[in-house]
């Protein structure tokens, strides 16, 4: 495997998770969790005591950190801060909405899916003009 590039571990990116306790625990058990020297984590457990402000702050922090490549957010949590999720337009970190066991996934509320549909509808309109 001569041409294969090695990925340095000191500059590898993280996955952040904003979700309910069961979802975050599953991702932590899979090895996603990280606590840095300043005791900053890459996850937020959302329960009935978590305020919308805390969710907003975590989302803003995770999307501004350079060591995070993907932010996984439960769709019902994303609905609480929909204005931030829909307004986010940077490619990295990517925002992916995921289902949780207590809240079914609704594709109508998924910001990524709606953007893809918009792009394909714009593309089909442009291809019809040719």
UniProtKB/TrEMBL annotation:
GO terms for molecular function: proton-transporting ATPase activity, rotational mechanism. V-ATPase is a heteromultimeric enzyme made up of two complexes: the ATP-hydrolytic V1 complex and the proton translocation V0 complex. It comes from the Eukaryota. The keyword Ion transport applies. Belongs to the V-ATPase F subunit family. InterPro entries: ATPase_V1-cplx_f_g_su, ATPase_V1-cplx_fsu_euk, ATPase_V1_fsu_sf. Keywords: Hydrogen ion transport, Ion transport, Transport. Pfam families: ATP-synt_F. Subunit of the V1 complex of vacuolar(H+)-ATPase (V-ATPase), a multisubunit enzyme composed of a peripheral complex (V1) that hydrolyzes ATP and a membrane integral complex (V0) that translocates protons. V-ATPase is responsible for acidifying and maintaining the pH of intracellular compartments. One of its GO terms (cellular component) is proton-transporting V-type ATPase, V1 domain. This is V-type proton ATPase subunit F.
């Amino acid at each position: 495997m001569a041409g294969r590039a090695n990925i340095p571990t000191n500059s590898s990116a993280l996955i952040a998770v904003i979700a309910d306790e069961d979802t975050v625990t599953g991702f932590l058990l899979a090895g996603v969790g990280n606590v840095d020297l300043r005791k900053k984590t890459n996850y937020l457990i959302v329960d009935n005591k978590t305020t919308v402000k805390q969710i907003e702050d975590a989302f803003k922090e995770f999307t501004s950190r350079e060591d995070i490549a993907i932010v996984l957010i439960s769709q019902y949590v994303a609905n609480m801060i929909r204005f931030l999720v829909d307004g986010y337009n940077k490619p990295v970190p990517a925002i992916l909405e995921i289902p949780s066991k207590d809240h079914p996934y609704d594709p109508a509320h998924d910001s990524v899916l709606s953007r893809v549909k918009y792009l394909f509808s714009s593309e089909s309109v442009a291809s019809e003009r040719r």
